[in-house]
Design a protein that fits this description.
Elements lengths: L35 H15 L4 H12 L5 H8 L9 H11 L3 H8 L11 H30 L2
Helix pairs in contact: 1-5, 2-3, 2-4
Length: about 150
């Protein structure tokens, strides 16, 4: 039988398709550091680099978000792994909200085995958890049925 030739004229729409990640995070090597604080500082630095605005604008937008004063100088300290200043949870939230980049938060949450996902996926997560519980209950029911049948012999 003759070997079929591959059609080179038709585009393969899925060949180069890579779905967007559900959980946005930095590559482990990009935030590799000796401590949690240093990893977070690297994540903040990367977020600043990827942001569509400079640190002065970020500081201004974060100040507006928080209704509190955030300076460029303070942002520089948050990005420094050698500085004694670490970003607070509230300011980290402001950074995530202003840049729309959840990766620094996920860098921190990874240490606790957690992730931040978009709120739109909450219903799907609840559904999957319900399915897991349902399967567990069904297994328990099967075990109880087997025990009942065994005791009747």
């Amino acid at each position: 039988m003759a070997k079929r030739r591959r059609d080179t004229q038709t585009l393969d729409l899925l060949r180069d398709f890579t779905p967007a990640p559900i959980v946005e995070r930095f590559d482990d090597e990009a935030v590799k550091a000796f401590s949690i604080a240093a990893r977070l500082a690297k994540a903040i630095t990367a977020t600043f680099a990827d942001a569509d605005m400079d640190r002065r604008q970020l500081a201004q937008d974060m100040s507006e978000f928080l209704q509190d004063d955030v300076s460029k100088h303070m942002l520089d300290k948050y990005a420094s792994s050698s500085a004694e200043h670490q970003i607070s949870a509230v300011r980290l939230l402001a950074l995530v909200a202003v840049t729309e980049d959840v990766r620094p938060l996920n860098t921190l949450l990874k240490e606790a085995g957690l992730i931040a996902v978009p709120a739109e996926y909450e219903a799907l997560l609840r559904r999957e958890r319900a399915r897991e519980l349902k399967e567990k209950i069904e297994r328990e029911e099967q075990i109880a049925d087997a025990a009942w049948r065994a005791s009747r012999r």
